Amino acid sequence: MPRALSLVLTLFSGWLYGLCFPTASLQLLAWVALVPFLAVLRRTGVGRALLLSWVWTLMAAYTVGDWFAHSVATYYQQPILIGVGFFIGVSSFMAAPFYMAFALAYRLLVRRPGPALPLLVAAAWSGTELARGRLLGANPWALFGYSQVGLDHLVQLADVTSVYGVSFLLVAVNAAAAEVLARGRRAGLGLVTALASVALALGYGDLCLRDATSPAVSGAIETVMVQANLDLGSQWREEFYGRNLDAHLRLTREALRNARPDLIFWPEGALTFFLEEEPLYRGAIGRVLAASGAQLIVGGPRNVRTPEPVFYNSIFLLSAAGEILGTYDKERLVPFAERFPFGSIELLRRRFARVREFSPGILTRPLVTAVGAAGVTVCNEAMFPELVAARVRDGARFLVDPANDTWLTPKFSAQQFDIVRLRTVEQRRYLVRASTSGPSAIVDPWGRVAVRTQFFTSATVAGRIEAREEITAYGRIGDLFGIGCLLVAVGASVTRARPRHG
Asked: What is the pTM for the complete model shown?
């Protein structure tokens, strides 16, 4: 294949991949987006395949995350070139190696075509996605299956396979289509195999959705989410200390005029002070909550002096009197934002004044509320299905995801929200998401949005959830499907790499 054509097809495929995600959300493109890229891989040498895989990664990553460079530059108050450098670095070192590995596996797998080939290619892709979510810093952003969130019948198999099963179906169809283009009718049985897999998944989804119900009135938990849409500062400054509390109290007071919730949720970072050291602020919160009897789940920094100060990005459970009943300390911190792998490089350090750097949490068990145990993930932690599964195994009856989206864009927030939604399917739990700037929402155990706010608005929203106890197959076996895909793909690739004899 001519070099120019191979480059154009690679860029086109990466662009199509990105368009499958919000805010374009052209979800049906996902079933053919990889076909041009696969056509290139089977017609080029190893060196060029690796290079084009890197090019494909950059194009797909930019189309999905064109907000990245500007957001990083804003966050660190640096020139846009710093943001561009971060984008290229993150894409090149935390994503591209896995797509390069897939390209090598694909070239080996197509050496022996057959009805099972689309499934083997799909296994190779899903296995590399699992590796991408666990290795080289763990960057599971925009995995292929997330592009289908909202297609309820298709994504229900995530309660067995996580996102990797949805990706598997997409890649199987793409691989089958690429084979039909390359080999014609001889590849027809492979296409039938891929489509049969999709049909089975849709049938399973239909069975799951038949059992979908709304919270029973007798067992319903009334909730309110507060979204103040206030600037928390891309870099924390001393003058922010205590700011924004009045706005959250005002919105809570207004919401309580029309609702009698069991739980109220404020976002990650809603508190810009050390709650444990400020009895007056706790008293102010208690005076607002007292009449309702509602408990409050809210995010803010936590200072532990042992003997040197150690700071956590924490979530607090408060009683209706403003007393601290429990804390959750964020376990998976954002590199360069909440933890600093290269702390000696000053421009990478986010200045928190007294809070210089967060430490990963060790208090990760669910918060025991009056209406059931709440499994907490903070913002980006929801990208990691294994963390949510651990919360449920520890006894969580519903999920909570406080988030800070103010310094980012609606495109990022929409993509992150889709990731969060799939966690509910995997665990069959209700989820409450309280965001600084939206969407704040309730998602039911089948990934459907019950109520939500709009982006970048000041609002409150109320809704019902239900405490649930069942453990899903994914909750019990974890990433067995993804691991199996990886092992099958490696085995099949090694077999095809050996020269034939006789």
From this structure: 0.94
Torsion of Cα atoms, 240 then 243 then 244 then 246, to 10°: 180
The beta strands (E) that lie in 261-348 are given as 263-265, 295-305, 309-318, 324-329
Q: What are phi and psi of 59, to 5 degrees?
A: -65, -45
DSSP letter for each residue of 90-105: HHHHHTHHHHHHHHHH
Euclidean distance between CA atoms 89 and 87, whole angstroms: 5
The string of pLDDT tens digits covering residues 80-136 is 998 899 899 999 999 999 999 999 999 999 999 999 999 999 999 999 999 999 998
The tokens for 409 are 């864009």
Nearest CA to 454 out of 432, 473, 475, 439 is that of 439
Round to whole Å and give the CA distance between 39 and 367: 50
pLDDT digits over 161-184, tens only? 999 999 999 999 999 999 999 999
Distance from the Cα of residue 165 to its chain's centroid: 16
Torsion of CA 74, 75, 77, 80, to 10 degrees: -50
So what's the pLDDT on residue 402?
A: 97
Half-sphere exposure of 310 (CA within 13 A, CB side): 9
How would you class 283 by CB atoms within 10 Å of its CB: exposed for 0-12, middle for 13-18, buried for 19 or more?
exposed
- Selection from 465, 472, 422, 460 nearest residue 442 by Cα: 465
Whether the pLDDT of residue 309 is over 90: the answer is no
- What is the sign of the dihedral through the CA atoms of 317, 319, 321 and 325? negative
Distance from first CA to last CA of the chain, Å, rounded? 31
Cβ(181)–Cβ(419) below 8 Å:
no
Q: How many whole angstroms separate alpha carbon 389 and alpha carbon 472?
A: 9
CATH architecture assigned to 217-470: 4-Layer Sandwich (3.60)
**How do strand 441-443 and strand 431-435 relate by DSSP bridges?**
antiparallel
Instruction: List phi, psi (to 5°) of 414.
Output: -65, -40
Residues whose CB is less than 8 angstroms from the CB of residue 395 and which lie 6 or more positions away in sequence, other chains included: 365, 366, 373
d(CA 485, CA 479): 10
Q: 274 near 280, Cβ under 8 Å?
A: no
CB distance 369 to 297 below 8 Å: yes
Q: What CA–CA distance (Å, rounded) separates 416 from 250?
A: 28
- In the beta sheet, which residues pair with residue 199? none
CA 283/CA 149 separation, integer angstroms:
42
In 405-479, alpha helices (H): 410-427, 473-477
Question: Which one, of 208, 165, 41, lies nearest residue 474 by Cα?
Answer: 165
